Amino acid sequence: MFEPSSFPPCGGTLPRGIAPRGLSVRGLCNPHAGPVDFDVPGGACLVLTGMSGAGKTVLLRMIADLDPHQGDVALDGRLCRAMPAHLWRRQVVYCPAEPGWWSDSVLDHLPDDARTRDLLARAGLRDGLLRDPLHRLSTGERQRLALVRGLRQDPRVLLLDEPCSALDEATTRKVETILHAEKARGVAIVLISHDPRQADRMADLRCHMEHGRFARVGS
């Protein structure tokens, strides 16, 4: 049963009860969001809703250990601060709304192999995209390509910031099929979405954010 937590003061004593499995967040905060406590078991999807500027993206970035924060995040009972950052980010993969790239060549980000081609096909992307420069791809193609890149790391947690915002309904359903398959293999997902229909299809847990805090929590 997913229950709203009491929100301790930022920097106060961390609550007990880090979950032995899945993603656990305790007292997580910075000046822009939190403090919040919640758990997402493996195989479940927490959908975050709220207006732009409510703190949803900041929360994902703190979980991914990309923004400074207080509080703790743990995966399967192991604290983020107890492992090197690069190992945490391989297991807890963050896909931002506007993905970042270090090269204009798609092949510099993904290998051309059977697994990549399978993921591309499942996401509704063509094989030839691997040979295209990134600047020629649409926003929706880049969003799905970033998801494929993240899935190649075999993550335990996916942090997804509006991954379907530039997609039509049919393509959105393809992405959701991939996400349901990830849930089936035990991946915990935290998904930001402004689409109430997508929230209904994907959510096992829900949190609505206002002013950096959880205003409503449910399942």
From TrEMBL:
Annotated ABC transporter domain residues: 18-219
CDD domains given in the database record: ABC_ATPase
GO molecular-function terms, A-Z: ATP binding; ATP hydrolysis activity
Name this protein carries in UniProt: Putative ferric cations import ATP-binding protein fbpC
Record bears the keyword Nucleotide-binding: yes
Coiled-coil regions listed: none
Keyword set, alphabetical order: ATP-binding, Nucleotide-binding
InterPro entries for this protein: AAA+_ATPase, ABC_transporter-like_ATP-bd, P-loop_NTPase
Pfam families: ABC_tran (PF00005)
